[in-house]
Design a protein that fits this description.
Blueprint (H helix, E strand, L loop, with lengths): L2 E5 L4 E6 L4 H10 L6 E5 L5 H12 L3 E4 L5 E4 L7 E2 L1 H4 L9 H8 L1 E5 L12 H9 L3 E5 L2 E5 L7 E3 L5 H12 L4 E5 L5 H12 L3 E3 L5 E5 L7 E4 L4 H14 L1 E6 L7 H9 L3 E4 L3 E6 L8 E2 L11 H9 L4 E5 L9 H7 L3 E5 L2 E5 L8 E3 L3 H13 L3 E5 L2 H6 L3 H7 L3 E5 L1
Parallel strand pairs: 2-15, 3-14, 6-7, 10-11, 18-19, 22-23
Antiparallel strand pairs: 1-23, 1-24, 3-5, 4-5, 7-9, 8-9, 11-13, 12-13, 15-17, 16-17, 19-21, 20-21
The structure holds uridine-diphosphate-2(N-acetylglucosaminyl) butyric acid.
């Protein structure tokens, strides 16, 4: 299994090009199931989760054409299997995103229920409740969700909590339903907005994009289109944290600063000088970061997917900070690993208190989820001695060429196969 070897190498300087967002690319690929015409996607990040989604669609009978450098075309005109099997779903929870579009377009879908995961139990009850409100018959049998509906019907659905993939699943399902669907308490994450924008290009009628209430007037059919995946705000935020910790001056290209205001504000509070244009962000950090308090909440507030990286920064910051995680019940798995590197963090329930230390020391560490792995890479960039991050297949699910991108700005980081 691959590992990363990291040795501190001072300031980071130069430019990094940001990839398309994983969490936008996955639902966009699933949206191809809504049309018999071709969906052409560009700026798709080459990640393990993207490959898994490709396999999932191919297993259903989709033709997938790709140049293997960020461009894909999907042809779902010959779908002959409406099942997402356990073998794939267990490796990627986002597989649940085929449920809404498959059911809506083909009248039936079977998707293995994703189990719990390292960061929380993550049920999908809101996805199912919404589809049932739209008239689907849903059965849970042998670990699978089995859904049927001749044609879904528009409904008013109030979601119990803000759920990103829940909103995406119901939004896709509603585009082909009979009548008007109103989704209340919808997620407003930029990745949801990106999906909605693409669906509109495909001929969907959606009002309220980017707000908590989405109104969808179902249409008879959708057509193909071409769409570029929104830049990855979490990848961008991760690199900004790297610079805030190691110091230096870095410019991020092809970024989307408008989707990450709160992260930029927190970095400014930590002492970084941030400048941004339409599609670039520059960070200049010459001092030790100052500790900043964090509370994760749905967009536009602070993202849970940046919590671990900010904890790594706070671990070496001047002062103490409080980090409250309100989205997932078990997303502090990186705390003991950071402490093994010399951090002073205590966590109880959903709150962690981080007392900044002057120095971390390199160690062999591993993480059980994607963003926790990223936080250990950041810690390795500033720790004394050598850090080995194990189990980096988690990182490969969500960061494209992370060692190359960080290496290009001066980090000493090497993949060991
Ligand atoms: N929830 C329920 N019932 C549901 C759906 C969600 O109780 O039916 C709960 C979850 O257990 C969680 C909260 O609601 O406590 C929010 O979960 P959400 O559904 O929003 O998460 P998700 O859609 O499964 C997406 C991202 C995650 C990201 C979260 C939160 C994708 C593919 N995944 O997950 O990304 O952390 O939203 O923003 O979009 C990552 O990229 O590392 C990652 C985990």
């Amino acid at each position: 299994m691959d590992k990363l070897k990291i040795t501190a190498n001072g300031h980071l300087n130069g430019e990094i090009v940001i990839s398309g967002a994983k969490n936008a690319a996955l639902p966009l690929m699933c949206a191809a199931l809504l049309t018999k015409e071709r969906l052409h996607l560009t700026n798709v990040p080459m990640l393990r989760d993207v490959k898994t989604t490709q396999k999932l669609l191919q297993g259903m009978g989709a033709r997938v054409m790709t140049d293997n450098v960020h461009e894909f075309e999907f042809d779902c005109s010959r779908i002959n299997n409406t099942c997402a099997p356990y073998e794939l779903v267990k490796t990627m929870r986002a597989s649940i995103l085929v449920l809404g579009p498959t059911l809506s377009h083909f009248g039936e879908a079977q998707v293995s229920l994703p189990g719990g995961c390292a960061i929380g139990s993550r049920p999908v009850d809101q996805h199912l409740k919404g589809l049932e409100a739209m008239g689907a018959e849903i059965l849970i049998e042998h670990g699978y969700v089995k859904a049927r509906a001749k044609r879904l019907k528009g409904a008013r659905i109030v979601m119990d909590m803000v759920t990103v993939t829940g909103t995406e699943n119901l939004l896709m399902a509603a585009t082909l339903a009979d009548g008007i669907t109103v989704l209340e308490n919808a997620a407003t994450e930029p990745e949801v907005t990106d999906l909605a924008d693409c669906l509109v290009k495909m001929g969907a009628d959606i009002q309220g994009i980017g707000t908590r209430t989405l109104t969808i007037r179902g249409v008879e059919k959708l057509h193909g289109c071409s769409h570029s995946v929104v830049p990855d705000r979490i990848e961008a935020g991760t690199f900004l944290c790297a610079v805030a910790m190691a110091g230096g001056k870095v410019v991020l290209r092809r970024a989307a600063p408008k989707t990450m205001q709160v992260v930029l504000d927190k970095l400014t509070e930590a002492g970084a000088i941030i400048e941004a244009g339409d599609d670039w962000i520059a960070i200049d950090m010459q001092n030790r970061p100052k500790a900043v308090d964090i509370r994760t909440l749905p967009y536009p507030a602070f993202p849970t997917d940046m919590q671990a990286q900010f904890m790594a920064m706070n671990a070496i910051a001047e002062g103490s900070s409080k980090i409250v995680e309100t989205i997932f019940e078990n997303r502090f798995m990186h705390v003991p690993e950071l402490n093994r590197m010399g951090a002073d963090i205590s966590a109880e329930g959903n709150t962690a208190i981080v007392k900044g230390v002057e120095k971390l020391s390199g160690a062999t560490v591993m993480a059980t989820d994607l963003r926790a792995s990223a936080c250990l890479v950041l810690a390795g960039l500033v720790a004394q001695g050598e850090t080995i991050v194990e189990r980096i297949y988690h990182l490969d699910r969500g960061y494209e060429n992370i060692e190359q991108k960080l290496g290009n700005v001066g980090a000493r980081i090497e993949r060991i196969s």
